[in-house]
Amino acid sequence: MDKNMLAGLEGLPEEDKNRMSAMIDHLQLRDSLRMYNSLVERCFNDCVDNFTRKTLQKQEETCVARCAEKFLKHSMRVGLRFAELNSQAATQD
Amino acid sequence: MGGFFCHFLALRNSLNPNKNKAFLRSEVSMAANIPAGIDKEQAFGMAETEMEYRVELFNRLAQTCFNKCVDKRYKEAELNMGENSCIDRCVSKYWQVNSMIGQMLSAGGRPPM
Questions:
Q1: Least CB-CB distance to B79: which of A12, A34, A74?
Q2: With an 8 Å Cβ cutoff, are A28 and B33 in contact?
Q3: Which residues contact A43 (CB under 8 A, 6 or more apart)?
Q4: Which positions carry the signal peptide feature in this UniProt record (chain B) (predicted)?
Q5: What's the whole-number mean pLDDT along residues A45-50?
Q6: Complex ipTM > 0.85
Q7: Please, which residues 37-76 of chain A have a Cβ atom closer than 8 Å to chain B?
Q8: CB of B66 within 8 A of CB of A72?
């Protein structure tokens, strides 16, 4: 875990720290799995329409690769903006 | 499949290693300062619920803005300048809508019949 996260945990006893960090790890894993599934579904829906063959065609493969990469980059950008807005909101309270 | 998934996780983490950590910080400090009258178990429960809500908010926001801003033809793997601006603005507006509704719900209490 990185230090920024632990800064908020300073006041807590060891077992509470561990509990919080276990909770966060669990959430993170679950979120990653959900994203995996939703990304597969999205790229499949957007890129694959043709069922005359049972293997992916070259253009479908390229499309899926671009789709996945684009979504992950998008997700990163959204994460940056989200964190900015979150910290703005926190300082306003 | 397992090997592919590990590759996916590695890619995702390299692109965004601190996503969850960055925006869960407020929940962490919330749990560290337990207000009087609430026991520890409740505080953990509230922190967990709040964290789940935030993760859900992020996911819906990401899906929505992707649908609104990104061309589905996937002509290239990069986001172009137009898409980048659109994403920034979309996130900002979504956030404003989220705040508005949050305020309406906490002020009004129950929905009008």
A1: A74
A2: no
A3: A63, A64, A67, A68, A71
A4: none
A5: 95
A6: no
A7: 38, 46-47, 63, 65-67, 69-76
A8: no
